[in-house]
């Protein structure tokens, strides 16, 4: 009887696993992939899609098609519950029970601070990205847009929206058309030179921004900050950073940092060696919390693939060693980008070309 590997989520790491399975099927192992959507969108190209530089089909991977090529069964659903002792998951929509011999999670993170009054009713969240893509397709880019969240995704999205607005004929480019509010420093940086560079670009491109200001309450067309300031909007985009999925804590697995699955450097749960995890949904034991970035997921992917093979073959597993600081490329609109590495930051069109080359090559691997 074949053993069973269940892949939960279609993130960066599991895309790599599917590609490897096309070339090297694991003998006597039946593989299923569980994901709530048949298309996995690539967050690194979202800002370019918003700006109109990429078509929707350029930023998405067809999971069903990729699974078929890899000999993997695709199940369009999500995990409602996990029982690590009986080695089963229950799916949310169909209530199907799936048994496994090994399971791997690559489900990303959720959006933080959605419990603030009014957010769920009036805010548009970037996750799940599949629904956010539909929102962008229907968006009137002439509207006043308030972006709550000053991390990488919030800054990229705000600048891409600004670039898209500049493409609208006759639209007055007033600074309040795109506003960013963040509860801390931009990008969460402690380096004043990097933050001043970010502020300079935001100002140069005509955005309004508020740092170290928290949203206390959301109404239908305005928010109230902790300073008492009221900011009006036509559309509110909520990009307040990552929050751990509820699944792992509810399942009784050991977690860290308020809910991220705690794994060893082998990417195995510290509780159950047949539970693996990678990407934004995990915290790695013996390492300080890593930034939630696809850069780390891409580096984890070959380690997870090797360890799944070794696990089923009864071989010794290998460790993942994160490298910090990591290099970041952030699109700033109009085919320009930041390069950030440690305490160094640069900005030019050349870095956008580099980012576009890296992102496009990544997508071509899976399309």
UniProtKB/TrEMBL annotation:
<dbReference type="InterPro" id="IPR036188">
    <property type="entry name" value="FAD/NAD-bd_sf"/>
</dbReference>
<keyword id="KW-0274">FAD</keyword>
<dbReference type="Pfam" id="PF07992">
    <property type="entry name" value="Pyr_redox_2"/>
</dbReference>
<keyword id="KW-0285">Flavoprotein</keyword>
<dbReference type="InterPro" id="IPR051169">
    <property type="entry name" value="NADH-Q_oxidoreductase"/>
</dbReference>
<dbReference type="GO" id="GO:0019646">
    <property type="term" value="P:aerobic electron transport chain"/>
</dbReference>
<dbReference type="GO" id="GO:0003955">
    <property type="term" value="F:NAD(P)H dehydrogenase (quinone) activity"/>
</dbReference>
<dbReference type="InterPro" id="IPR023753">
    <property type="entry name" value="FAD/NAD-binding_dom"/>
</dbReference>
<comment type="similarity">
    <text>Belongs to the NADH dehydrogenase family.</text>
</comment>
<feature type="domain" description="FAD/NAD(P)-binding">
    <location>
        <begin position="5"/>
        <end position="300"/>
    </location>
</feature>
<protein>
    <submittedName>
        <fullName>Pyridine nucleotide-disulfide oxidoreductase</fullName>
    </submittedName>
</protein>
<keyword id="KW-0560">Oxidoreductase</keyword>
């Amino acid at each position: 009887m074949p053993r069973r590997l269940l892949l939960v989520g279609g993130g960066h790491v599991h895309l790599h696993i599917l590609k490897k399975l096309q070339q090297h099927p694991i003998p006597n192992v039946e593989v299923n992939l569980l994901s709530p959507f048949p298309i996995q969108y690539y967050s690194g190209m979202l800002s370019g899609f918003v700006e109109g530089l990429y078509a929707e089909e350029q930023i998405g991977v067809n999971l069903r098609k990729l699974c078929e090529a890899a000999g993997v069964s695709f199940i369009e659903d999500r995990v409602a519950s996990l029982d690590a002792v009986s080695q089963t998951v229950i799916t949310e929509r169909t209530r199907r029970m799936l048994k496994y011999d090994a399971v791997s999670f690559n489900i990303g993170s959720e959006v933080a601070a959605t419990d603030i009054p009014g957010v769920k009713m009036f805010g548009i969240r970037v996750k799940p990205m599949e629904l956010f893509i539909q929102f962008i397709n229907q968006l009137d880019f002439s509207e006043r847009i308030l972006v709550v969240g000053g991390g990488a995704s919030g800054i990229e999205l705000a600048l891409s929206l600004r670039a898209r607005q500049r493409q609208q004929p006759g639209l007055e480019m007033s600074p309040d058309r795109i506003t960013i509010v963040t509860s801390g420093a931009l990008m969460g940086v402690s380096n004043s030179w990097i933050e001043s560079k970010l502020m300079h670009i935001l100002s140069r491109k005509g955005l309004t921004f508020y740092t170290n200001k928290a949203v206390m309450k959301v109404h239908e067309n305005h928010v109230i900050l902790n300073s008492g300031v009221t900011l009006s909007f036509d559309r509110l985009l909520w990009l307040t950073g990552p929050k751990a999925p509820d699944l792992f804590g509810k399942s009784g697995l050991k977690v860290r940092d308020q809910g991220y699955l705690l794994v060893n450097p082998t990417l195995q749960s510290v509780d159950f060696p047949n539970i693996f995890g990678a990407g934004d949904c995990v915290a790695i034991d013996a390492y300080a919390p890593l930034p939630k970035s696809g850069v780390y997921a891409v580096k984890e992917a070959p380690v997870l693939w090797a360890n799944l093979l070794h696990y089923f073959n009864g071989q010794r597993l290998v460790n993942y060693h994160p490298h910090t600081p990591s290099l970041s490329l952030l699109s700033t609109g109009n085919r320009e980008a930041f390069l950030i590495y440690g305490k160094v930051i640069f900005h030019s069109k050349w870095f956008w070309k580099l980012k576009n080359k890296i992102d496009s090559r990544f997508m071509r691997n899976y399309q």
